[in-house]
Amino acid sequence: MIIEIPQDISMAQADIPPYTQMRRVRFGPDPYDIDKLIELMRESKRPLIYVGRGALWSRATEDLVKVAEAYALPVMATLPAKGAMPEDHPLCLGLGGYPRAVYSTGQSKKFAEDADLVIALGCSFRQHATSSWLPKPAHAKLVQVDIDPAELHKNYPADLVMLSDIKLFLQALLQQGTQKLSGWRKGMSGVVSEEIGELKKIWMDSWNSRLTSEEVPINPYRACWDLTKGLDRRNTVLLHDAGVTRAYVSHHYEALFPNGFIGFGGTSAMGWSTPAALGAKLGNPDKTVVNVTGDVTVPAGHVLTIESNTVILIDGVASGTSAPDIFVGGTVNSLGTEEHPVTITCASPSCSRCGGRTDGDGQARLAPARADPGLRRAGRRQVDARARADVPARRRLAQQRRGDRAAFPA
After folding, report:
1. Which of 7, 76, 281, 337 has a CA 20 to 30 Å removed from the CA of 33?
2. 91 pLDDT exceeds 50?
3. Residue 368 in contact with residue 218, Cβ under 8 Å?
């Protein structure tokens, strides 16, 4: 949905009453239902936790990790929930879906196929997460926990449902399971973690040729993999745009904290991620915000066309009307302010200014060796951000321009 607002209305002054924050109201599960779940868990040989974005809204990461570790439960997440379980945790399967997702790691796919009990937390079972609603395996029990009653039984009939906040559900399971699940799966964490590690290695090996490809133009998976390795992911928020850019970056980028990766499925429109990245920066001023996008419409009235496989690094907050230069593969566009510059690093295979070479057909081709300096520079800007904090804005922009021109000669 697009709402168009006339300029005079959008610029008008209005009296806004002071905002009063309301206390958040939560509700937990019925203890009887927790007991029924404990019975299902004790009967299960291959249990699996499947988390959706409801776990992030509930801020349930800490409790999710506690439950997973207490009962040796592997955890996979939908695209919007990526990072709800830190993806470097040995019990985390990474991106996945049930019965099978369009976007999924190899280890998630295997565990989803073999699971005999799936505990779905805050999941909507939408099209991308189910590969267009594949049938649920007959051998598996499904437990669905959600705060929205409209989601329960909506796309798949569940064997047990609970209307509950996810955080309160996990706390209740820990509390009631202390005695009733004592000894269950004791000593299994190492076994499960080892299986996940072996499957992850097999899956990563199958991708290695694309992640380290030297082909020209640059393989988009190579560009995103180099970006992943170059960033301090504990201080980064990464977004992707709609379309294939989501596939390039979502599988192999490991989100290490909640909302460190902001993923969206079929409901996001082309170009949404650039203004969303600016909003993410406003909410996380101490973190680097990275947006992976293709063709995109940039705010502030400027249309910026970049071919696919473009990496956008946002160092500052774009606001106001005074705009410094932004470098997009050596070209200059306007966005941001002098105090809050927005820096864009391009890794486009069709941008000759950022290191591509032009073949006989007139199309530029970007080689990995020429893309690497831009990606490394993006990482350096992140690492050096605090060290540069005392440098005046104009001087910092001048230094940035010289560095860009040296690394990306026209």
Report:
1. 76
2. yes
3. yes
Q: Which of 197, 224, 240 is the last residue of a domain?
A: 197
Q: d(Cα 221, Cα 245) in Å, to the nearest integer?
A: 9
Cβ atoms of residues 328 and 350 within 8 Å: no
What CA–CA distance (Å, rounded) separates 140 from 156?
12
Q: 323 with 316: CB under 8 angstroms?
A: no
In a 3-state reduction of DSSP, which class is residue 175? helix
Q: What is the pTM of this model?
A: 0.76
On whether residue 17 sits in a domain, the answer given is no
DSSP state string for 119-155? EEES----HHHHTTTPPPPTT-EEEEEES-GGGTTSS
Instruction: Work out the end-to-end distance of the chain between its first and last CA atoms, rounded to an integer number of angstroms.
Output: 40
pLDDT tens figures, 40-62? 999 999 999 999 999 999 999 99
Same domain, 395 and 277: yes
Query: Which residue range is the domain that position 352 belongs to?
Result: 212-407
